[in-house]
């Protein structure tokens, strides 16, 4: 059995008495596209910053490709790509100057060709000063920088922040292509839809602790829908009888809101016999999913 690409054991980080993460255990195998999800402040970035040796753990250990993240950090960084959430770079440089510096650092033999290919793909002007770039374009620079050396492992911390929908699509297609070539991807996000669309397996973190590691197909089957219905006539919550409905709340007028975890077609069939003015079905927030999914 091959060694995991990421192997985290009882990893903890405290900021004084404040818990960042506590007793994180996680194993990610070669070639996986692994999601790491949770609300802002859950501990995702803390975990990633320890992996990248940007902060030190309070306890436990973490290894990347069999190497200790503290002792072997220089070797690790030559084989890992990293997209931070804040997309920062040397603002005094032009885009091309910064990316050329990166290819020298990584000793990329076909670096200029790689810069050209990726900048064209993301429609990025290499002559612009980084200080003059929008958030979206700075994120493009960060993405390109992370991929220049064709890393074995790519660690992404909220990577789509600032990207418009078209560039997000380009980005995800590129990641799928790189994964098919063997790249392992660790994808951290608070956007559940992104993770569901892209990842095969996911760890859910809340309050600094991993509360579940799940195949994404299983998570999708259990996912809630947040439903709001405005009826023409008054309907009392007690008579709203259908399986998989919870937390029914009466709103203004003849509106009912509830959480639904069943087959959406069954819900539509039930609604077809009612006099409905408006119906809205949407994804709940991650906190709402956590509340439902782990309330027992």
Which characteristics define this entry?
single chain, 296 residues, alpha/beta, Rossmann fold, Alpha-Beta Plaits, six-stranded mixed beta sheet, 10 helices, 32% helix
Tell me what you see in this structure.
With 296 residues, the protein is an alpha/beta fold. The chain has two domains: 6-220, Rossmann fold; 223-293, Alpha-Beta Plaits. The protein is 32% helix and 30% strand. It is built from ten helices and 14 strands. The chain has helices at residues 44-51, 73-77, 95-106, 111-121, 135-147, 165-180, 192-198, 216-222, 264-271, 286-293, and strands at residues 6-15, 18-28, 33-37, 59-64, 67-68, 80-83, 153-157, 184-189, 201-206, 209-215, 225-231, 245-250, 255-260, 276-282. The strands form three sheets. A six-stranded mixed beta sheet has the order 6-7-8-3-9-10, with helices on both faces. It has a four-stranded antiparallel beta sheet with strand order 2-1-4-5. Strands 12-13-11-14 form a four-stranded antiparallel beta sheet, covered by helices on one side. Helix 6 (165-180) links the parallel strand 7 and strand 8. It is globular and about 70 Å long. The model has no long low-confidence stretch (mean pLDDT 88).
């Amino acid at each position: 059995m091959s060694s995991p690409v990421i192997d985290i054991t009882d990893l903890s980080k405290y900021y004084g008495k404040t818990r960042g993460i506590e007793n994180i255990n996680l194993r990610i195998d070669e070639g996986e596209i692994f999601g790491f999800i949770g609300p802002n402040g859950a501990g995702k970035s803390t975990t990633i910053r320890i992996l990248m040796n940007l902060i030190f753990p309070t306890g436990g250990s973490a290894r990347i490709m069999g190497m200790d993240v503290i002792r072997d950090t220089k070797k690790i960084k030559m084989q890992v790509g990293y997209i931070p959430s804040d997309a920062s770079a040397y603002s005094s440089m032009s885009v091309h100057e910064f990316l050329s510096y990166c290819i020298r650092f990584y000793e990329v033999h076909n670096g200029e060709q790689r810069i050209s290919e990726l900048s064209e793909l993301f429609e990025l002007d290499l002559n612009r000063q980084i200080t003059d770039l929008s958030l979206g374009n700075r994120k493009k620079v960060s993405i390109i920088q992370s991929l220049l050396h064709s890393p074995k492992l790519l660690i992404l911390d909220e990577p789509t922040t600032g990207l418009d929908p078209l560039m997000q699509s380009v980005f995800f297609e590129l990641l799928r292509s790189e994964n098919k070539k063997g790249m392992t991807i660790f994808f951290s996000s608070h956007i559940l839809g992104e993770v569901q669309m892209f990842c095969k397996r996911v760890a859910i973190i809340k309050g600094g602790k991993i509360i579940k590691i799940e195949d994404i197909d299983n998570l999708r089957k259990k996912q809630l829908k947040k439903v709001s219905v405005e009826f023409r006539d008054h309907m009392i919550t007690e008579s709203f009888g259908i399986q998989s409905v919870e937390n029914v709340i009466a709103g203004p007028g003849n509106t009912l809101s509830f959480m639904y975890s069943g087959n959406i077609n069954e819900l539509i069939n039930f609604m077809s016999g009612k006099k409905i003015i408006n119906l809205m079905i949407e994804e709940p927030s991650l906190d709402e999913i956590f509340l439902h999914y782990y309330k027992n």
